[in-house]
Amino acid sequence: MISLLRYYSKNSLFTGDFAKNLQKLGYLKRFSVFSCNSNWFVDESRKNHILNQTHKNPDSRFASNGFLCTFERFSLYCFYSSNRTSRAFRKREKKRLKAYSEPSLDEAKFQRAVSQLLPRFTPEELHDVLVEQDDPFVCLELFNWASQQPRYKHDVCTYHISIKKLGVAQMYEEMDVIVNQVLAISNFGTEALYNSIIYFFTEARKLTRAVNIFKHMKNNRNLDCRPSIRTYNILFAAFLSRGNNSYINHVYMETIRGLFRQMVSDGIEPDIFSLNSMVKGYVLSLHVNDALRVFHQMGVVYNCLPNSFTYDYLIHGLCAQGRTNNARELCNEMKNKGFVPSNKSYNSLVNALALDGEVDEAVKFLWEMIEQRRLADFITYRTVLDEVCRKGRVGEAMKLLKEFQEKDLVDGHTYRKLLYVLEDDYGN
Fold it and tell me: Which residues have CB under 8 Å from 181's CB, separation 6+?
């Protein structure tokens, strides 16, 4: 088949009709690979002539000279090789597919937006028009069009709304171009503008870029551009969203700790979100004692009191280390202050108590959890029942499971799974 293709290519008989016939036979899609480096054409001038004649029709699967369009071409390597294609190859193919399927500019919307502007429009008028646009491509084209107009200069408001529109649409490359224009202007911008830039870079997982913007804010002579508590909180949230790997959280916790110290040294008073970020970061990186230190400084060193999230983070961290007495004390203190523990706190405490041998206490907190309309997960039910059976109280465990079913705490599928586990492990 490949020889056949080479023959027709050399003799310039590879027409659109021929390609369509082969497509019907199911061969062309699997075998046709065209490369500028191949020797299928007689000479260089002939090759360039044919390639220049190739014009892709977006609505057609074939180019005007009969060759398949990029979207329809497949690699010969994919057919012959039993190995999986390389990551770089898949990345290139994904990029081509994305470029092929990218929506284009709606000229009608763009012209309608331009018609709303006066001949000598101001940045505020352009901002109002940009706010009304729901198409990010129109916003980008309108921003670039305005940049080329005589006697016009973008202001903070137009930069800000354009960056927000592109960031929400996840057009981070286009947004980065506008950000570079902002950075090129000395002592320009506002804190809100830079906070939006940092936020969208963290959403794009470009943490290095976000930190560089933060450093630019620190070095800016314009005091309106200096970082605020909102800037630090955006960075805290970004560094704490890297997953549940304790080693990764340990690495990022060093950065969070440095940012927190810098914030305090700059005279910025931490709020409850900042302090909870420190508590959560210490818990995730397994530094529970440091988290307790921050907790005890609330209301004493820092002018804010713990909330339900603070207690939830600490209870979960203490239970993970088997410190059930401390976790139980915090849970009782939390309830005395009018807070209700979350699902995660209750599940962690019930599991930790059961595994520590305090089965009756675990069952007590489990019923309390149900009364507070908190949901116990499958692992919690299984752990409690399993530990009750380990105490030699198999009948009590079966009765407890039956009670769970009667009160509709577990569905039929979960009930059968728990019943089979108990029967397999401890018999009938």
Answer: 154, 159
- Give me the chain's average pLDDT, please: 81
What's the Cα-to-Cα distance from 355 to each of 358, 360, 377, rounded to whole Å? 7, 12, 16
Evaluate whether 96 touches 72 at the Cβ level (below 8 Å): no
**DSSP character at residue 120:** T
Higher pLDDT, 42 or 127: 127
What average pLDDT score do residues 63-87 get? 52
Which range among 19-23, 302-306, 357-361, 391-395 shows the weakest confidence by mean pLDDT? Answer: 19-23
How buried is 321 (Cβ within 10 angstroms: 0-12 exposed, 13-18 middle, 19+ buried)? Answer: middle
The pLDDT-based confidence of 288 (bands split at 50, 70, 90) is very high
Euclidean distance between CA atoms 307 and 326, whole angstroms: 18
Phi-psi region of 207 (alpha: psi -120 to 50; beta: other; left: phi over 0): alpha
Name the residue type at position 256.
I
CB contact set of 88 (below 8 Å; sequence gap of 6+): none
Compute the distance between CA of residue 249 and CA of residue 15 in angstroms, rounded to an integer: 60
| Cα separation values, 300 from 68, 293, 305, 312, Å | 72, 11, 9, 20
Token pair listed for 209? 């870029």
Confidence of residue 34 (pLDDT cuts 50, 70, 90): very low
Q: What are phi and psi of 140, to 5 degrees?
A: -65, -45
* pLDDT for res 53: 40
Neighbours of 337 (CB within 10 A): 12
H or E element in which residue 347 lies:
helix 343-355
**DSSP three-state, residue 20:** helix
- Name the token pair of 89: 């190859």
